[in-house]
Amino acid sequence: MDKRWKIISSFVVVFAAGAVVGSLYSSRTHENRSQEWRERAKDDRPERTDFASRVMHHYTERLQLTPEQVAEIKPIVESAGKQLKEIRMGWSRNTATVAKEMNQAVIEKLTPEQKTEFEEHILREMTDRMNRMRLKGRPGMGERPPRPPPAHE
User: Fold this and answer.
1) What's the pLDDT tens digit per position in 82-99?
2) In this structure, are residues 70 and 60 in contact, taking their beta carbons and an 8 Å threshold?
3) What angle do the packed helices 51-63 and 67-108 form, to 10 degrees?
4) How far is CA 4 from CA 9, 10, 12, 18, 99, in A?
5) Crossing angle of helices 123-136/67-108, nearest 10°?
6) In the chain, where are the structural domains located?
7) How far apart are CA 74 and CA 66, in angstroms?
8) What is the secondary structure of 18-80 as a DSSP string?
């Protein structure tokens, strides 16, 4: 019986030691990654919402572009950025138009009481939700959320 308790206590000690070592390792790893993320946030990368600057920074770094190449490529990238922004804004306007048409068609099928409820509550809730999304800068509303930092293994 005494031997059995020694074995059990040995397992408990090994388990506890593993838990302590694991938590220390995890804590240090988290601190190091947090420090890396803070340093990366301070570097000279362009603002994440500016498409042309972000792409040009990436191209310049990865392709080692010469100043002449940067001067030739930058207008192309800026033009594409403007086109993409117009597409996003057009998508947003088109979405609003479809939603308005849908609401109008639904209202035509409702009873007078239902119309009142729809107009007073449902439309207001939809409008409030869209306004909150715009304020938060959700995708499709002209803003992109910040990207999480890349994971290092």
Assistant:
1) 888 888 877 777 777 888
2) yes
3) 140
4) 9, 10, 13, 21, 72
5) 170
6) 1-43
7) 12
8) HHHHHHHHHHHHHHHHHHHHHHHHHSSPPPTT-HHHHHHHHHHHHHT--HHHHHHHHHHHHHH
CB atoms within 10 A of CB 59: 16
Residuewise pLDDT in 10s, the chain (153 residues) = 688 888 888 888 888 888 888 888 877 777 777 677 666 656 555 445 578 888 888 888 888 888 998 899 989 988 888 888 888 877 777 777 888 888 888 888 889 988 888 888 888 888 887 777 777 655 444 444 555 666 654
DSSP code of residue 147: P
CB atoms within 10 A of CB 130: 16
Q: Looking at this protein, which amino acid is placed at residue 58?
A: H
CA separation for the pair 30, 151 (Å, rounded): 11
Q: Mention every residue, 6+ apart, whose C-beta is less than 8 A from residue 143.
A: 49, 137
107 near 119, Cβ under 8 Å?
A: yes
Query: Is the C-alpha dihedral spanning 38, 42, 48, 53 positive or negative?
Result: negative
Structure-token pair, residue 145: 């959320």
Count helices and strands in the chain by DSSP H and E runs: 5, 0
